[in-house]
Protein 1
Amino acid sequence: MITFDKIKYHSDLGNLKCGICGEPFRADTDIYYSQKVSGYVCEKCIKRFSKQQIEEFLVLFNTYKGHFGQFNISVMTLKHMIIEFFDLISYTSHTDIIELNMRLRHQALLYGYTPEQLIELMKRIIAK
Ligand SMILES: [Zn+2]
């Protein structure tokens, strides 16, 4: 299980942002850091997501960049996003299913969809 150390943010740490939501840290606020995955996390995100989710999100954002909710959720529905994603699979040479899964999860996070919402929608699509 991943653990996070709680530290106080101060300017000596540099201009840091939350590795999940992308919000810049304010002086003297509590922030969280794990040796296991690189990235600092704000209190709001620590409370909102499980430690396991935060670990996964940090890995995805460290790999593919961006942050949770970076894009306007109204711009693209999750269903539309999944359809586009399947289009991507059909015309690229991607054969690594693990990477494709990571990219889909990353894309959902960019639009502020949680993994639970992504799974719910995929279940509904499969059921049709
Ligand atoms: Zn945050």
Note: The chain has five helices and three strands.
Protein 2
Amino acid sequence: MAPEGLHFRLLQLWCWPVSDTFPLSDLGAADPTTEPFWTACGDHRLVVQHCGACGSHQFYPRPFCLACESNALEWTEAKGTGTIYALTTVRLAVVEDLSPPYLLALVDLDEGPRLLTNIVSGPARIGDRVHVDWRSREGLPPVPVFRVT
Ligand SMILES: [Zn+2]
């Protein structure tokens, strides 16, 4: 029987974390697949996975390559530049830390992966070039956000 206060979160089998805190954060400390990403965020470095077998990049982190299914993945620092693929304005309070209105975007990194993020520099349009910035969070690693270049 699990001790009181020990919480399990059902995820994919390869990343079944156990935590003694609740609610679970997205720190990723209990998930070996995402932990290198969050560690790099702590240093304001945007990293993505690179496949040593086929050369493709991917994000979000996974235990194998989506292109060739190899597990020869390594972490590489992205340039932090990209292009807005899709964009919308969120006008309802969905996330406690974000006061609407704010811009929610899909950004295509120059390395290839598409990242769900926020545009924090004001008005933006699909196709605008952007560069990474960081939003601080209390007690958690910063998250990558983007500014129009
Ligand atoms: Zn591959």
Note: The first strand starts at residue 7 and ends at 8.
